[in-house]
Amino acid sequence: MDRTQSARWFARAERVILGGVNSPSRSFKSVGGGTPVVMARGQGARIWDVDGNEYIDYLAAYGPLVLGHAHPKVMAALREATYDGILYGTPTRWEVEFAERLQAAIPDLERIRFVNSGTEAVMTTIRIARAVTGRNKVIKFAGCYHGHSDAMLVAAGSGPSSVGVPDSAGVTPGTAHDVVTVPYNDLDALRAALAVHGEDTACVLVEPIVGNFGIVAPASPTYLRDVIDLAHRAGALVIFDEVITAFRFHYGTAAQMYGVHADLYALGKIIGGGLPIGAYGGRRDVMEQVSPLGPVYQAGTMAGNPASMRTGMACLEVLAEPGIYERMDALGRRLAEGIRQLADTYGEAVTINRVGGALTVFFGSHAVRNYADAQATDGVRFARFFHALLDRGVCIAPSKYEAWFVSAAHTEADVDQTLAAVEGAFKAMAAER
Ligand code: PMP
C-alpha cells in the first residue's frame, strides 16, 4: 500500500504540530512506530487517506462516529447549523431541545450542562462532588482514562490501592495525594480503600463498562450496584463516566443496562454526532450547586454551541430508530466470532472482550478483567497485527488498550472483508513465528 502522501504530510506536521499529532493516541508510538496515516475523507464505514487508499474504519474517531462517517441526517443538521451564523453566547432553542431529548432518554439527568469535551465534563463532576461532600479525595479505577485534567492523570496507568502517582509530569503532589486508585472488578480492593480513605472521599468515579484498557465489562451483574452501595455508605457520591458508553450499546446509558443510578454522569463523544461536545448532569439537588444557582463555578464560551447541539440531536434521532443497536450487536458478534475462529486456525492466542458493537482483541489467553490483565497482554503481537491490518485496508486504533467500534454503517460484507484481512494478518504472523 503506497502511503507516500501520508508520509509527506506527516513530515510537514512534525515541523509545526508538536509530535505531528493533536492527541498522543494518534501517534504510532505504542505500535512500534511508523507514520500515522493522514486521512482525507470518510463515508459510511469507510475512510480514505491522502493517497487515496481505502480502509474499513473501526476507529470511529475513538467512539463518536456510531453512525459512521457523513451520515446524511447529521450532515444536513451541520449544514443547517451554519445558515444563521454559528455562535451567540446566549441561550438557544437547540440546547433546550437537545437537553430535553437527553433527559427523556436518561431520566437520571434531572439537570444537564453542556461543555466541550469529556475532560471538562468529568472534571466538573468531581468539583461538584467535592463541594457537596466537603471532602477532597476521588477514588478511581486503575487504568481508566477520564480525560486530561490534572487529577485524572493520576494512575491513568498502574496503581496500587493507595494514594496514586501521576502518570504525567506537571501534576502537583497535592493533586496526586487526593486521588486513590483501585483495580476494576475488585470489590475487596474498593472496600479496603474506603476503609482507609472513606471519610475523606468525595466520590467514586467509574466507567461502568470500561473502554479505556480495552472493552471490559463488570465481571458480575451486581458489581456496579455494589460499587454504588459501598460509595454511598461511605458518604461519597458516585460519578459514572459514560463518555464512551452512553448511546454506545443502547439508546441510553450503561447504568440503565445494569439497572443502577449514579448521582452524576459525564457524557461526550456520541452525543455530539461527531462535533466537539461534553455534558454532565444528574441529581437536581447536586446539580443545583453549580453557578449561577450554587457556589461551584463552571463556564464555557463554546458550551452548548448550536452546531454540536444540532448534530447531536440528529445523531440521537437516528439512534432512536428501531433495530440499530441489534444490528451493531449482530455485526459485533459476527466479527468477534470470526476473529476467534481465525485465531484458533492460525494458532494465535487471543482473548476477545465484546459488548454489543464494541470489542477488543487482546493478544493473550488469560481473561481480561482489569488493567493489570490488559497490561499483561502482548503489545508486540498486537503491534504486528495492527500494521498487518492497516496494510490490508482495515483501520483500528494504534493501541492494544483500545476498542474496535462497529458502526450502524457497517454491513455484513464489511465484516466479511475485514475477516479476510484478519486472516491475511494472522497468516503473515504465523509465517514469521
Ligand atoms: N472519559 C472517557 C471514558 C473517555 O474515554 C474519554 C476520551 N477518550 C474522556 C473521558 C475524555 O473525553 P475528551 O477526549 O472528549 O476530553
UniProtKB/TrEMBL annotation:
Pathway: Porphyrin-containing compound metabolism; protoporphyrin-IX biosynthesis; 5-aminolevulinate from L-glutamyl-tRNA(Glu): step 2/2. GO terms for molecular function: glutamate-1-semialdehyde 2,1-aminomutase activity; pyridoxal phosphate binding; transaminase activity. InterPro entries: 4pyrrol_synth_GluAld_NH2Trfase, Aminotrans_3, Aminotrans_3_PPA_site, PyrdxlP-dep_Trfase, PyrdxlP-dep_Trfase_major, PyrdxlP-dep_Trfase_small. SUPFAM superfamilies: PLP-dependent transferases. The gene is gsaB. Its main location: cytoplasm. Pfam families: Aminotran_3 (PF00202). It is found in: Cytoplasm. The modification N6-(pyridoxal phosphate)lysine is found at K269. It catalyses: (S)-4-amino-5-oxopentanoate = 5-aminolevulinate. Homodimer. GO terms for biological process: protoporphyrinogen IX biosynthetic process. It comes from the Bacteria. NCBIfam families: hemL, PRK00062.1, PRK12389.1. This is Glutamate-1-semialdehyde 2,1-aminomutase.
